Amino acid sequence: MKRFICIGLLLLGIEVQSQSVQSPSKEITLNFSLSENGKPIYNVFYKNKPVVLQSNLGIKLKVDGDLNTNFLIDSIGQKEVNETWQPVLGEQSKIKNNYNQMIVALSQSSSNKKINIIFRVFNEGISFRYEFPKQEKLNYFIISEEQSEFNLTGNHKVFWQPGDFDTNEYNYEETLFSEINTEKVNLNNGIGFKAIKNKFAVQTPLMMKAIDGVYLNIFEAAVVNYPVMQLDVDVQNFKLKSSLAPNALGDKAYLQTPCVSPWRTIMISDDARDIVSSKMILNLNEPSKIEDTSWIKPMKYVGIWWEMHIGKSTWDYAGSQNAQNNGELKPTGKHGATTANTKRYIDFAAKHGFDGVLVEGWNVGWEDWFGNWKENVFDFTTPYPDFNLKEVNDYAKSKGIKMIMHHETSGSVANYERHLDRALNLMKEYGYTAAKTGYVGKIIPRGEFHDGQTMVNHYNFVAQRFADYKMMVNSHESSRPTGYSRTYPNYICAEAARGTEFNAWSIGNTVNHETILPFTRLLGGPMDYTPGIFEIKMSAYDKSKKEQLHSTLAKQLALYVTMYSPLQMAADLPENYEQHLDAFQFIKDVPVDWQESKYLEAEPGDYLTVVRKDKHSENWFLGAITDENSRKTEIPLDFLSPNKKYQAIIYQDGIDADWQNNPKSYVIKTMQVTSKSKIKLHLAKGGGTAISFKRIN
Asked: What's the pLDDT score for residue 328?
C-alpha cells in the first residue's frame, strides 16, 4: 500500500521562518529555520523534550564559496508516505516505510546557488540530506567538508569506536560523552593498519543513552558516490560535527549536479527495542535495481578459513606465510586449500545439509600479500598446484554443494578492478554463485582510504558488476553498509566490523561486543560475523596460547539468531562439530531468511533477546545473549500461534558455565509449549540461550 498526501507551501523570499515536520506518531518534532545571516538550522524534540539542540547545516566547497550562509527560502513542500515493500532477503517478509517529509528549497543571495534540504521524520527518528539541483551556477563542484552538526542535550553514555577512515574493526568503548578520547584506546588489538584521525573523533553508527533513558543513534543511509561520515567531538559542549573521509588530495567528494548527499540519521526512542529493530536505514535507500532476483538465495556454509586463523594451516602454498616470493615455491604440507581438504569440507557440508563451501588461499599470491603495499598481488584466476578447480567443482556438484569463491585484494583495488571480469568469468565457468571479497591493507590507489569516495564507489561497483553476472558478494574489511543491500540485494552481506577471527590471535572481542553490534553495525545491513565456534580456548591447539572467545558455546548458537545475516557460516572445524553433534543440531536447523522478527528484550552493551519466524514454515527460533554478567529472565511465548503446540528444544548454558572458566558447559532439554507458556532463561557470564520452536500440530 502506498499513500501520498502532498502539501505545497510557497514561501518566496522568506528570510527567517521556522517550519516543523512531525513523525506519524506525533512523538518526534523537527524544526527548521534560518538564522539572521541565512544559516540553515534544525533542532529535534522527542515527546516534547529536546534531544538535539539548535544545530547548523551546510556544505563547504573547495572553490567559489560555501553553501552554509546567506540563504533565503524559496519554497517548502511537505508530504506523507505510508507504504510497504518486500525485501528479497531479510528479517521480515514485509517492511513498513512510513514518514512525513519536508523539502526546503534554498537559494543563496550572494551567489544565486541553489540547494534543497530534505527532511524525513519516522516514528523511530529523523533524517536529512542535501540535494543539489541542476543549475547554471553550480555544475561540477568539489566538497571540502560537510558541516552537519548534532548538538546534544547532555553527557550521554556512548558506545564508540575511534574515528579511523581505514578500519572499523575496533572493540567498542563504553564511556560518558565527556570521556571520549581515542588516546585511551588499547591499540595492541590485532588491527594491522590504523589511521586514527585525532583524539576527539568517533565513527558512526554512534549509539547513546541519555540520563533520562532516551536512546539516540547517529548514523547515515544510502552512501553512494560520497565518502563515509565520521564525527568530530566537542567533549565539553556535547557537540558533534560531520567529518568526511578525504581522498589522496585531501578533497572529500567530486560531484556534478543534479546529485544528493547520503542521508544523515538520528534514531530516537525511550525503548531500545525500537532502535535495534528499526528499518529506517533500509527505507532510506532506493528500491532494488535488479529486476529478476530469483537467483539471490540465502546460504549456510562451512569453509577452509578458521584453520588458518588458529595456525593449523596457511593461506599460502609454501607454508611460510608472508615470506617474499623468490624462486620456486616448495610446499611444506601446511597449505589449507588443497583439493583433498576441500573435498573433506564438501563431504561435511553435504552430510549436514549446508548450502556451500568457502575456500580461502586457493589462488597464487599469498606468499607476500600482506603489508607490502604491493600492486600486482593476485590474479583471481590461477590456482595453486594442489588445488584443482575442475575436480573440486565436479565433486561439489555431485554432492549438491555450491562453492563460494574468495577474492582477497590486499587493498590493491586497482589490481582487482583490472581482473574483475576475468574473475567473474571463471566463477561463471565453474558454477560459483557467490564470492567473499577482502580488503586487508592500505589501499591502492595509494593515498586513498577504505572509507573515501573512491572506495565507496568501488564497493558499490563490485556489487553491480556481480549482479550483471547474477552472483552474490560478501565484502570484508569494507566500509560499513548503509542499507545499499536494498538497492542491490545481491550485496548479500558484509563484515565491516570486528569479527570472530580476532579471538584467535589477539586480545579478542569484548564480552559485550555482540550485544552492541546489533545497535550499531547491523543497522546498516547484515553482517558475516562467522559465529559457531565450539572450541572456545585456543590452548586446545597450542598449550602456550591464552587467546579465547569471550563467549560460552551456547552463546555461539544464540548468535545465529541475534546477528542477522542471510549468509551464515558454521565457522569452526568439522572435527570440533563432530564432538558436539547435539549442539550442532541447532546450527543445522536454524534458518537464515525470516518471515517475522521480534526483539523481546534489548539493552545496548548488556543483553539482547530476539525471536524470528522461519520464512518457509511455522517454526520460530530464539536467541538470547548477555554481557559479562549472568542473567535470569522469563520470556512469554505469546509470539507463537494461538491454539497450536510446539516442541521447544532449548540449548542453554550449564549451571556451572562461565565464558572464561567453563565455556563449553551446556545443557539441551525439550519441552512442549504453547503461546500461553513462559520459559525461564538462565544465561551464564558471557553466555546465551538458543531455542527452536517446532510446530507439532
From this structure: 75
Q: How far apart are CA 307 and CA 535, in angstroms?
A: 12
Q: Name the strands in the sheet holding 607-614, side by side, starting at the edge strand that comes first in the sequence.
A: 594-603, 607-614, 620-626, 688-695, 646-653, 666-673
What's the one-letter identity of residue 128? F
CA–CA distance, 233 with 207 (Å, rounded to integer): 14
Residue with cell 560523552: 177
Of 124, 220, 495, 501, the catalytic one is 501
Q: Which of 475, 182, 179, 231 is nearest to 171 (CA)?
A: 182
Distance CA(344)–CA(215), nearest Å, equals 48
Distances (CA, A) of 46 to 138, 267, 523: 37, 11, 21
Query: Which tens digit of pLDDT belongs to each residue from 574-605?
Result: 999 999 999 999 999 999 999 999 999 999 99
Is-cis flag, bond preceding 445, omega within 30? yes
Q: Is the dihedral of CA 659, 661, 663, 667 positive or negative?
A: negative
* Residue 272 DSSP class: H
Residue 10 has pLDDT above 60, yes or no: no
Q: Catalytic site residue 15?
A: no
Q: Which cell goes with 149? A: 552538526
For 22-39, letters b (16+ CB in 10 Å) and e give ebeeebbbbbbbbeeebb
Per-residue pLDDT tens over the stretch 539-566: 999 999 999 999 999 999 999 999 999 9
**What's the length of the chain?**
697
CA 45 to CA 416: how far, in whole Å? 47
Q: Could you give the angle at the alpha carbon of 104 between the alpha carbons of 100 and 106, nearest 5°?
A: 170
- The contacts of residue 571 (CB under 8 Å, 6+ apart) are 302, 303, 305, 306, 500, 530, 531, 532, 533
C-alpha cell at 611: 525471536
- Kindly indicate the confidence band of residue 8, based on its pLDDT and cuts at 50, 70 and 90: very low
E strands, 365-433, are 402-408
